[in-house]
Amino acid sequence: MSTFLTSSIGKKLIMSISGLFLIAFLCVHLTLNLLLFAGADIYNAAAGFMGSNIIMKIIEPVLGAGFIIHIIYSIILWFQNQKARPVKYKMVDQSESSTWSSRNMIVLGILIVAFLAIHLVNFFYKIKFTDIKVTEYQLVTGMFTQEYWYIVVIYVVGAIFLGLHLYHAFQSAFQTLGLNNSIWRKRWDVIGLIYSLIIGLGFAIIPLYFLVKELI
Amino acid sequence: MDLTLKIWRQKDSKSKGKFETYQVTGISPDCSFLEMLDQLNEKLISEQKDPVAFARGDCGVSFDHDCREGICGMCGMFINGRAHGADTGITTCQLHMRRFKDKDTIVVEPWRAKPFPIIKDLVVDRSAFDQIIQAGGYVNVNTGGVPDANCIPIPKPNADEAMDAAACIGCGACVATCKNASAMLFVAAKVSQLALLPQGKVEAKERVQKMVAKMDELGFGSCTNTGACEVECPKSVSISHIARMNREYLCAKLSS
Known about the structure:
CATH superfamily of chain A: Fumarate reductase/succinate dehydrogenase, transmembrane subunit
Number of strands of chain B: 7
Helix content of chain A: over 70%
Order of helices and strands of chain A: HHHHHHHH
Low-confidence stretches of chain B: none
Largest interface: A-B, 44 and 49 residues
Number of helices of chain B: 10
Distance between the termini of chain B: 60 Å
Order of helices and strands of chain B: EEHHEEEEEHHHHHHHH
CATH superfamily of the largest domain in chain B: Alpha-helical ferredoxin
Radius of gyration of chain A: 19 Å
CATH topology of the largest domain in chain B: Fumarate Reductase Iron-sulfur Protein, Chain B, domain 2
Low-confidence stretches of chain A: none
Number of helices of chain A: 8
Oligomer: heterodimer
Distance between the termini of chain A: 61 Å
Number of strands of chain A: 0
CATH class of the largest domain in chain B: Mainly Alpha
Strand content of chain B: 5-15%
Number of domains of chain B: 2
Largest sheet of chain A: none
CATH architecture of the largest domain in chain B: Orthogonal Bundle
Strand order of the largest sheet of chain B: 2-1-5-3-4
């Protein structure tokens, strides 16, 4: 077991499991966000439940650890992989052999972390550590207005990056776990595409909806 | 066809290499890429630009080649950014000049990976692959009477899949094309081939651990599942074998 987690496959396993945990978290997150469409009362009740629930209080640090582990291992693996090719090619053409997102997971990951920082300051920090005078619903809808158009742009672009990251991440996680073969590959690919489209479009549509609603 | 070639020239493993530009003219679209390089070398030798190099037999471009019928895997080179050039399912000897256009500029580089040091020009040392095989890519055969042929029943799908994995010719295109210089497809092909057969199952757990440990030790990168390797593999070995290796490795580690 000692060499397990330090081996290349072991490190990939950690990436895969932490990634799948984050994938599951995103489902919960999006479901809650979509309640914004159900009106202020329902959303505030749901947000209040998530904030005070004992289970959520336990899961919160686990979620934070999930993010940190996923980020740290991606950086470790990226540096190790760079070392495996000290002299780079003059010309590389992988446009026909792999997808753009699969080759740029680290770039997409860094952009998502940057977005995450903005996102945490916007909502998590404000709700947890400051005395907001408004309800959660007002905080969210107040952010996605014409006045703060750039926040809407950041959230939509962030959601697109997340969708691209997830499209490769989903199938990659199952491949790393070994839960794959020539039949399931096509299935994971389709399920991953549907999942990443739902998450990407789902998160993108919320700020756009409130912006358009204000304009009309 | 008239072509401009930008070829990586490097005297030996310790020297610093650089790209040299050569012009070749009158190349037939029907000849293979290696035959085109042969014509370039004949031209370079007949020009005898550098008498000292000529005396050493050193003025032509060095490149690996052997069978020239697509089965030995020697002729590894990175052509216009792709392992074995733009066609899929082939080695360089099966790449024909009709794939290029007249007046094209072609960039030719050796495989680039830390465990594949350059010996000279386009020739790299792929013995790292041999070391991985030596670490466990075999089946021990005990002494005794010769067993009857076909006395061990093997399900047809398993035999087929093992055969597909065994098609690997160890050319190194997977490592060369992988953005992480990972050898996972090569190692997975051997692990998968032997794990699928009853004869190989006996040592399967030990084998996968030893081969992966050797792969890591030699400095190959890790797999990020881009799938580029299976596209560039001249034998189209599937990355499903990598999934099987991951499975074998995780099960072996968890049960040991």
